[in-house]
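Q: what does this look like with iron/sulfur cluster bound?
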Amino acid sequence: MSAQIERIERLYREGTLPQEEMSLLIEQRDAASTEHLFALARTRQQEHFGKAVYLRGLIEFSNVCRNDCLYCGLRRSNRACSRYRLTPEQILESCRVGYAHGLRTFVLQGGEDAGFGEEPIARLIEAIKSRYPDCAITLSAGEWPRAVYARWRDAGADRYLLRHETADPALYARLHPAELTLEHRVRCLWDLKGLGFQVGAGMMIQPPGQTLQNLVTDLCFLQELQPQMIGIGPFIPQKDTPLRGERAGSLELTLFMLAVLRLLFPKVLLPATTALGTIDPIGREKGVLAGANVIMPNLSPEDVRAKYTLYDGKNVTGIEAFKTQLADRLAKIGYEIGMGRGDAPGYAPKFMQDDGKGQRTPPES
Ligand code: SF4
């Protein structure tokens, strides 16, 4: 047995590896042993999730952002970005369409938009929960004070996605303006955990300057945080950002890291992200075959989908076409769409309770 296969077997058996072995595992990856890694990742994936791939309805509610991350097309200094902010009515209509298609998780994603802050988001969560108490709400709205997160949690939000992007402070500083720090982002993640959110974190794969050691640092950070969701995706340059001329991250390394994550975190919810589908026409299927188990179709109104320009070339197919195509595409690789809320295993959802007067109130936590 080669040293690489031994490392993969050990990772599968023990669910972890010493840092130096993890570093070698990533560095010495090759096609043959990677196939073995993927097969073991699928074994773990199917132990906990069967052949179901959960769908989440993604609603990009605002592309206004107060931040200036160097890699992102929504950065505030990008004058080429055509800004929009959905109305509550548009968002509720997106939920209605998604619900009718069987979706039971809505992901509300936006830039850090001070004009769509604490109260508007809280009221929106309450409105969605009162209409669809059987659905989960995931927020992805960036860094806010703990009290704001607490308000959103009280309003009924179940999950929060806040990718850490990189757990290396020097690389974080290269990719973000000075006012954004890794320390603050990490504090937000712990605040969210403390408030009872199911938390999602994750890193970019191969932004400029990333080393293999940086990826090992990311894995260590995730082991410490123990999130319920991990979202990773390749760096994709966006033409109106300072990183426009840089090389994109590779599909190959992204898939490899997905499989490593599945073995490190067997029960984690692991999306095959839109970015994967952007850099390869069958990138999402490849992600599922590497251990991913979540896909997020876009529910945003058609006229704004193309304006949410995190990176270039983003796939923006609507829900109707997407779901039909996806069912076929998953069937071809032996998987199927899973239509429930798709909570992390072991998590018991608390549904809103009816007080008998037609009012719905959140249960005591
Ligand atoms: S990555 Fe997020 S916080 Fe940074 S500029 Fe883009 S939308 Fe704003």
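Residues 349-365 have pLDDT under 50 and may be disordered. The longest helix spans residues 31-49.
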